[in-house]
Amino acid sequence: MRHTSVQVTNFLHILRSGAFDESKPIAMMSPFKWDKLVQLAILHHLIPVFANGLQHYQHDNSMNMPEEQIETIRQRLKEISPKGFSDLYVFSNIQLRSKRLNERLQKIIHDEYASDEKSYETMQIMAIIIVNIENILSGKSYLKGIVDLGRYLRQKGQNVDFVKLDQWLSFTCMTSMANLQGNLLIQGFGFNKNEIPFVHHEDKHSQSVLIRAIRHDDLSTLRVWDFHPSKSGFIVSSPKSAIKSIRHCLSYRRYAPRETMATLTNGLVNGLAEIEE
Fold first, then answer.
1. What is the mean pLDDT of each run of 10 residues along the chain (277 residues)?
2. What is the pTM of this model?
3. Residue 5, CA distances (Å) to 11, 14, 208, 211 in order
């Protein structure tokens, strides 16, 4: 699904308004383009944020969204059950694909729950970051997770122990992936580095990563490991899909080499196991 720069800019500005109450100018668009924006909001599970953002533009001269799209949003809102951060990102349930790194993560979880000085907000931020990493590498939509990360930082960031968080990220080799997520907030949602202490350097790739995230092509159903038995042996059902999925995953290898390779390996093993069944 391709989108113009005007659509991408409008989409980000509406989300920024809905999530962070920061209004930026939007441009008039055709009904076709507005429809694509509504579909993007649905795709990324961001209809509540999108709808809230649109409210801020209801008296803007550039706000020319057709009534039929507005009605689509109303109907979608009726179908959504609100959930809090603790329901969506559960610290005790987060996992990594790499066996060694997951053992480290589970030690962090065990030790934190056993501690007399538990830091709930730090646990919550870590959970959001790890869930985002899983979605990024597996090819699922993760833009909502980035927005949720930003919302939590704005709401509870003052209570997060960022020294502890840095230690956890370093111990699990997820510092670079967290840094990328922070850079996405800076690039797309007007955050500054001081608001995100786990951002240690500017990521020159973050803008292109953000655009790809918005123009999301769901790779989670294009199973890299989708092998089927045939008379001549095992074949890949869709080589193009497999290559696309592999390229997507490997594009993040610079950020998390162990977790990237574990994600691909884990998928392959699971696929072969299904064949044996």
1. 78 96 92 93 94 92 91 91 88 96 98 94 98 94 97 96 98 98 97 96 94 82 51 56 80 96 80 53
2. 0.90
3. 10, 14, 12, 9
